[in-house]
UniProtKB/TrEMBL annotation:
Full protein name: Elongation factor Ts, mitochondrial
Keyword Repeat: no
Lineage of the species this protein comes from: Eukaryota, Viridiplantae, Streptophyta, Embryophyta, Tracheophyta
Cellular localization per UniProt: Mitochondrion
Name of encoding gene: EFTS
Function: Associates with the EF-Tu.GDP complex and induces the exchange of GDP to GTP. It remains bound to the aminoacyl-tRNA.EF-Tu.GTP complex up to the GTP hydrolysis stage on the ribosome.
Annotated source species: Brassica oleracea var. oleracea
Length: 395
């Protein structure tokens, strides 16, 4: 009995201190208050002389932790919804609370919130992103999907959407009715086309526009399709594509695509495909603007001639010397901007024209470069109003 009287006092002090500590608006105050009955039972058991004080105190502590499973369940729901949607934890918890911890209703609520936020961010500049390339027997399609930061461009969901768009772009109808060549298209043609997505966080049938909005809602950034190109080949041609800074097959930040045509239906295409791959890499590195010097636009040639003439006249030489200087520097200009005149990056002792001539001798049939395309993520976005630099280089 003496021991029981001594045991009651410190336990009473403990419970009193706990109620003082958590009784100022904290959710634990109601929990502590609700345990006084357990405390009374403990006291009566000790007074009766047959209860173990240590066992009674353990039962009391276990009763204080009886609310823990509910907290664990809430954390589990937050984790599940976060895995489903990739939304910020703060938004996940807010939706769950608002929907009374119904995970399905909270997921729908998050999608609604995300679309509203995505529409608000649609006016923000998106100059980062990825190029995605898809290819079949007769076509190569490349699309540009933009976002605001490189961090989002490396995200699995973003990259999955870009690849899905590229595969869909192979089915874009060429309104120009060209048998071969490059067909460019923009959001007006592409955004309302259907996509069938099969990703854990973005799935089902939807439009290109809605898919981009949904990914924007998940990522918290402006995500949008910017442009696309489809290059077709003739029946006796070879299409080659190269992607620079590629995180996985089919994705990159710079794309080079080259179309080679072989006369006479030559079946020895291995050498043609090898040179085509090297030329696609060359296009990425050398940045040609025109296929040949004959195809340099008259406007570009006139502007360059005027600049070179002004530079030559500043030397105070005769008019004849100035003309010779201008013509010599124009040859250098052609080597910079015309693909067929450029030095081959793999072997700079020859130019591309010589490379193609050597290939024709190797396969026994005339080979020519029919088209090329170079596209880079974000090119022209920040300088559309300040520069005449083309958005993409194509033959």
């Amino acid at each position: 009995m003496a021991f029981a009287r001594e045991a009651r006092r410190p336990l009473g002090v403990f419970v009193y201190s706990a109620s003082r500590r958590f009784g100022c608006g904290n959710e634990y105050s109601t929990t502590v208050a609700s345990k006084w009955e357990s405390l009374s039972q403990y006291r009566s058991s000790v007074s009766s002389g047959y209860a173990n004080p240590v066992r009674g105190f353990g039962n009391l502590l276990r009763s204080f932790s009886s609310e823990a499973p509910a907290v664990v369940d809430q954390m589990s729901l937050i984790k599940q919804l976060r895995q489903r949607t990739s939304a910020p934890i703060k938004d996940v918890k807010a939706s769950l609370v608002e929907c009374n911890w119904d995970i399905e209703a909270a997921q729908k609520d998050l999608r609604k919130r995300g679309k509203v936020l995505a529409s608000k961010k649609s006016s923000r500049t998106a100059a980062e992103g990825m190029l995605a390339v898809a290819q079949n027997e007769g076509k190569v399609a490349v699309i540009e999907l933009n976002c605001e930061t490189d961090f989002v461009a490396r995200n699995d969901i973003f990259q999955y959407l870009a690849l899905a768009m590229a595969k869909r772009a192979l089915l874009v109808e060429n309104s120009s009715q060209q048998v071969s060549g490059v067909f460019p298209f923009g959001p007006d043609l592409f955004e309302e086309l259907k996509l069938n997505l099969d990703h854990p966080k973005v799935n089902g049938e939807t439009t290109v526009s809605n898919a981009a909005t949904e990914v924007a809602a998940i990522m918290g950034e402006n995500v949008k399709f910017r442009r696309g190109f489809v290059m077709s080949k003739s029946s006796a041609g070879v299409l080659s594509a190269y992607l620079h800074t590629s995180p996985q097959p089919g994705l990159g930040r710079i794309a080079g695509i080259v179309s080679l045509e072989v006369e006479g239906g030559n079946t020895q295409l291995e050498a043609v495909q090898r040179v085509g791959s090297e030329l696609a890499m060359h296009v990425v590195a050398a940045k040609p603007l025109f296929l040949s010097k004959d195809l340099v636009s008259s406007e570009a040639l006139a502007n360059e001639r005027e600049i070179l003439k002004s530079q030559a006249e500043s030397t105070a030489k005769s008019q004849m010397a100035v003309e010779k200087m201008v013509e010599g520097r124009l040859r250098k200009y052609f080597e910079d901007v015309a693909l067929m005149e450029q030095k081959f990056i793999v072997n700079d002792s020859i130019n591309i024209k010589t490379l193609v001539d050597n290939l024709s001798k190797e396969v026994g049939s005339p080979v020519k470069v029919a088209d090329f395309l170079r596209v880079e993520v974000g090119e022209g976005i920040e300088r559309l109003e300040a520069s005449d630099e083309p958005v993409a280089q194509t033959a």
